């Protein structure tokens, strides 16, 4: 069974992260399936825009610690989202953690319900938000990121909008997105693609400049003794040994 659901309405292709049993964690299988679905959208002349959403109460819990994707595979997926010649809109009605926030940042527009929460939890398991910093750092407030990267604190939807992780939030996320999707449906496909190229140029420069170094950093940290302790503690639902 594929971990990605697909539906289409009036030129808008919706891709749903559909592994609720793992809180839509980024497993090797989910990353590969989402990459394939995005590639199909790019080749389909009937698709005007892509909506990335989810089943269950969590948009994405970050990396699947039992079946993590290779760091370069996650980099490739994030870059694919940024470079896709179609607008990508994130629709969030659940919680977002770590690598899931990277997915949001790689989308062109992101909206969430007021009940959604967000956190960069990497530091709490002994690693760093290395790979996901590629789309996050160019798009969000540096002072806010310093706090939330270093502490792993939760943000609510209003704060996520304030710091630039979200475009908008509201009680009804579909009402928030209705005028966005209407605007995309009314826009010329060629103009959308060229305008997206203008908007993402600096983000892609960051990928091309820093991806190799950050992929190596991610691999080194994930194989470290402190990360093994942090991930074991997480899976055992206890504090890691460094908590004071």
List keywords for this structure.
single chain, 244 residues, alpha/beta, 2-enoyl-CoA Hydratase, Chain A, domain 1, six-stranded mixed beta sheet, 10 strands, 18% strand
Structural write-up:
- With 244 residues, the chain is of the alpha/beta class.
- It has a single domain (1-171, 189-244), classed as 2-enoyl-CoA Hydratase, Chain A, domain 1.
- It is built from 9 helices and 10 strands.
- Helix 1 links the parallel strand 2 (12-17) and strand 3 (49-54).
- Helix 1 runs parallel beside helix 2 (71-83) and helix 2 (71-83) packs antiparallel against helix 8.
- The termini are far apart.
Nutshell version of this structure?
This protein has nine helices and ten strands. The protein has helices spanning 28-43, 71-83, 99-106, 133-136, 142-151, 157-163, 173-185, 189-222, 225-235, and strands at residues 4-9, 12-17, 49-54, 58-60, 88-92, 95-97, 109-113, 117-119, 154-156, 168-170.
Topology, element by element:
Blueprint: E1 4-9, E2 12-17, H1 28-43, E3 49-54, E4 58-60, H2 71-83, E5 88-92, E6 95-97, H3 99-106, E7 109-113, E8 117-119, H4 133-136, H5 142-151, E9 154-156, H6 157-163, E10 168-170, H7 173-185, H8 189-222, H9 225-235
Parallel strand pairs: 2-3, 3-5, 4-6, 5-7, 6-8, 7-10
Antiparallel strand pairs: 1-2, 8-9
Protein name: Enoyl-CoA hydratase
GO molecular function, one term: enoyl-CoA hydratase activity
Family: Belongs to the enoyl-CoA hydratase/isomerase family.
């Amino acid at each position: 069974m594929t971990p990605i659901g697909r539906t289409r309405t009036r030129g808008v292709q919706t891709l749903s992260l559909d592994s609720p049993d793992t809180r839509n964690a980024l497993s090797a299988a989910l990353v590969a399936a989402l990459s394939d679905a995005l590639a199909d959208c790019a080749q389909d002349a009937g698709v005007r825009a892509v909506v990335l959403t989810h089943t269950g109460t969590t948009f994405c819990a970050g990396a699947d610690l039992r079946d993590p994707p290779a760091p370069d595979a996650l980099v490739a997926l994030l870059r694919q989202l940024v470079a896709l010649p179609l607008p990508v809109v994130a629709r969030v009605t659940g919680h977002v953690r770590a690598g899931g926030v990277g997915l949001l940042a790689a989308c062109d527009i992101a909206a969430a319900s007021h009940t959604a929460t967000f956190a960069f939890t990497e530091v709490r398991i002994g690693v760093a938000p290395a790979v996901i910093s590629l789309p996050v750092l160019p798009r969000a407030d540096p002072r806010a990121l310093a706090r939330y990267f270093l502490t792993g604190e939760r943000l609510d939807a209003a704060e996520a909008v304030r710091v630039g992780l979200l475009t908008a939030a509201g009680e009804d996320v579909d009402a928030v997105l209705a005028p966005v999707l209407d605007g995309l449906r009314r826009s010329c496909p060629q103009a959308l693609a060229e305008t997206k190229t203008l908007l993402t140029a600096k983000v892609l420069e960051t990928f091309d400049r820093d991806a190799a170094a950050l992929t190596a950093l991610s691999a080194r940290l994930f194989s470290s003794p402190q990360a093994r302790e942090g991930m074991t503690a997480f899976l055992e639902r206890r504090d890691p040994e460094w908590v004071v």
